[in-house]
Amino acid sequence: MSTTQERPADAVEREIGRDRRRKEDQRLITGRTRWTDNITLPGMVHLAMVRSPFAHARITSIDTAAAKESPNVVDVLTGADLGESLGVNINAWPITPGQVTPTHSPMPSDRVAFAGEIVAVVIARSPAEARDAAELVDVEYDVLPAALDLKEAAAATGDQGALAHPDLGTNKSAYWVFDSGEAGTGGSVEDAIAKARTDGIVIEREYRQQRLIPAFMEPRSTVVDPTGEQLTMWSATQIPHILRFALAATTGVPESKIRVIAPDVGGGFGGKLQTTPEEWITWAVARRLGKPAKYTETRSESLMAGHHGRDQWQRLTLAAEKDGTVTGFKVDLLADLGAYVSLVGGGIPVLGAFMYNSIYKFPAYRFAVQTVLTNKTWTDAYRGAGRPEATFAIERMMDELAAEVGADPLEIREKNWIKHEEFPFTTVAGLEYDSGNYEAATARAKEMLGYDELRAEQRRRRESGDPVQLGIGVSTFTEMCGLAPSRVLGSLDYGAGGWEHASVRMLATGKVEAVTGTSAHGQGHETAFSQIVADRLGVAFEDVEVLHGDTQVAPKGLDTYGSRSLVVGGEALVRAADKVIEKAKPIAAHLLEASVDDVEFSGGRFSVRGTDQGMAIGEIALATFAAHNLPDGVEASLDSDATYDPVNFNYPHGTHLCAVEVDTETGALKLRKYVCCDDIGNIINPLIVAGQVHGGLVQGIAQALWEEAVYDESGTLVSGSFVDYLLPTAADTISFEIDHTTTPSTTNTLGTKGVGEAGTIASTPAVVNAVVDAVRHLGINDIQMPCTPERVWKAITGAGGGPTEGAAMPHFDASTGMEGTVDRTTGGTDA
Amino acid sequence: MIPAQFDYLAPTSVEDALAALAEHGDDAKIIAGGQSLLPVLRMRLNAPEMVIDLGRIESLRGVRDDGDAIVIGAMTPHAVVGADPLVAEHAAVISRAVEHLADAQIRHRGTFGGALAHADPAGDLGAPALALGAEFVIQGPGGTRRVAADDFFVDLFETAIGEDEILTEVRIPKHTGWGAHYEKFVRVAHQWPIVAVAATVRVDGGTIAEARIGLTNMGSTPLRARGVEEALAGQPATEDAVRAAAARATEGTNPPSDLNGDADYRRHLATVITRRAVLAAAGG
Fold first, then answer.
1. What span, in angstroms and rounded, lies between the C-alpha atoms of A681 and A745?
2. Which ipTM did the prediction report?
3. DSSP symbols for A445-480
4. Which of B158, B173, B188 is the last residue of a domain?
5. Which of B4, B260, B269 sits opposite A132 (nearest CB)?
6. What is the CATH code for A11-32+499-644?
7. Are residues B145 and B186 in the same domain?
8. Average pLDDT, consecutive stretches of 10 residues, N- to C-terminus, chain B (284 residues)
9. Chain A closest CA to B273's CA: distance in Å?
């Protein structure tokens, strides 16, 4: 049973739960800080990349002579020049033993596999001179057929249909399956579907997860200093520790000789969870020249060559009884890897595999994904990473089921969801949800939206034939976050663990250094972690300094992604702080001339039970530093480390509701109201949480309405600038209303759950459900994302029973991948 | 990104600017507010050897009353035009268009004349200039000439301004008391319009006596919707009458197809947006 709490009455007296403004904001917002591109070293050279304009081509010649003659050019190097010193870019998560993984050279010398791939690097005294000379590098290509369309690529053989890498003989990389019948976590989904076909409801749909671009604010940048005993890399990365490991593993430099620093980093959204060709090339150039080297990408390069996200086709079959009780859910995905299997690459859909059953008690479930290589930019993590796709699929399908049954979408969900008294609950995907209260979050969200009133207005508009129709969208989501129990990752063949490390050091002056292995890139760790440590040690918020992002300062860690920093990294800090207290206690007892058993710690003070005698922890720290009077056998240090490996994920959830107005004359969409009630357990800093939720909502809404990375038929990225890639601004959003229920997680002592991705995961289906709901009475059951006004208008003007209605949908076959493919343009929209 | 290297001149008079232009010819490019040129240079889509900046020529700034016309200096920033009382009183459709032009930063850097001389068919000022029958004052080595709006826009990014000439000011015949509206259809706020319509109408006792309609992004230049204007003249300012007239907004158009919509969709939008623009102009 889950217990949903009121916030403790003394919360305002403590740091945890306070709306602390972020310590780091002044320097981040003014830019007066160490962004990687701000770093300048003596004798530093600057790099510019020469990139392929073709999606797939053989390199026949590279003439660097003119570029080398250009003013202040130091050298121009190709893949052939750098050879093995370049190393390779690795895939850390082969999802099957037989995964087909092309070798990924940071700078290939024979063949390019996507438009934007690097073929030469110019090194000059200034960035401008490097860029000028890059224009003079003359590369000749022999253009090859390109594998571009995901479905065509999945079916291609080389003889018929282009191969992204002809030497591999296939574009299919890996086929990964979870089947509840085989896993013993549920029944056979085929049996459930067969039964529903004769005596129930079968809903079959195909949805598109369009390709997205993370579009972080700070472009990627790398500085490498090869002088001195160690090689140092600064990089605008989310993962300094993983980066260090990968450099050691692939470039022959011992890990002990490598220092990686992620200074202040301006956003990532998963887009900087990568080890990149640009980093490897800068590394190789600096080592070759023996000089510090810097590379900072342009915005155009960032959009073209930084990894993209999503890009899937989802084929879905939901079986239910006539009353809307779901009996089985079957999911078949095609996932576009792009040209290479990136660091986490094919694992992204697998991260969603355990979430398609969401908050529901499905008795049978099957998930299969075919990952596919194409001649496009590689894909990898993007905020939510697998879970937005899962949430979209099931939340869209639950709306379709509600429409089929003729029930309210919230009622159909309640019929199927896990009741709060049923936690902990083991799902059909094999996860144990520790806590949750879907009833409470939904009740609150309905009240916030004015659900019943808006339904009444919707009826009025429909009846009067108003040109502006109203739709109400529902998304009751959950996610697994806090990557992750190492044993679980191991069972999925992931290349690393999921623990996190922390150190807490009491300085002689009573100040505290809190060292974390997570690596903030805008989240506000310095503030939130200060609050946690301040409460634990009973010191002032201002007295805690959070250190991170440098492998010499924070030597152990697994960095920041997957909403893990607080729930894993924060817990590690708690444990390290508790060890500090344990180490201080015998010293305090000694100095207070009391028995250890009589000393207790509270509010930053050690006191002798039953007396008024006591000492502040800062005093103990100074006494320990002086070491003049320590008990025998006690070391002169309070410093403590902790490595924490979670036993389970944690499962934030929430109910998101939105109202959208559709102008049926033009297809224009207007967000009218968006409310959400998220349950993320105990909240450390409500202000930071609000920022995460608001930003996450906009990012998810953007997938629903605005953003799409589009390639033309030659493989050129058409949406290669912000003119065509429609990133929303504040002017495009509305004021969100957010609230929380609090059902503390039982998988960490703070009772917290991750919040970094929640808004993004939940909001996309809420908005699309609202758009479809607004026009469903016109015979429309789907509009492809992004729901552009043109697509909406064409759906309305071409409306009729959508082609997915009642159609039996053949699923992907494991052996052929694309058996029985139907080009299924849904709901009268243009694909 | 970093532009290719170029030289830079900032003359303080039109005469000096013309002399520089004559000297450098094809190798020179004029910069006004730079809101279109700088992205082009930074993406290396163009690499002039000389950039001539008009920003220090004070005589090119400002709005003045000149009898039956108002005159807007080519280097007047959008934000100044948008806030100008003369423009609001006599050429309100320009005020309406400037309100939603790009974003606040661009409205403070970009200039009225620069945007018109750039002649992007998706730019927000061409349609109002056409609708109001603006005259473009162009100065060259041989002196000054005036070009009517109908003759100014030649093709995509091409105007009647010669290679050795500079647009110095735009004369707008006064449309005092005319209702005005600029209806812009976009997916996100800072986007170029997918389609936009500039409408200004003179309403006399509930009847549309005269209407002037300009279309944005419905062809390779801004377009005047003369068919709609004819159909509106003498009609009551009612939904039905305006709807019928607005159906002619597609006449003579050749809209582009892109990620935001194909040509058919844009034609449909033009009729709806025209109706809304005219009704709003007539109502206000």
1. 6
2. 0.96
3. HHHHHTHHHHHHHHHHHHHHT-SEEEEEEEEEEE--
4. B173
5. B4
6. 3.30.365.10
7. no
8. 92 98 95 95 93 98 98 98 98 97 95 98 98 98 97 97 97 98 96 97 96 98 98 96 98 96 97 98 83
9. 9
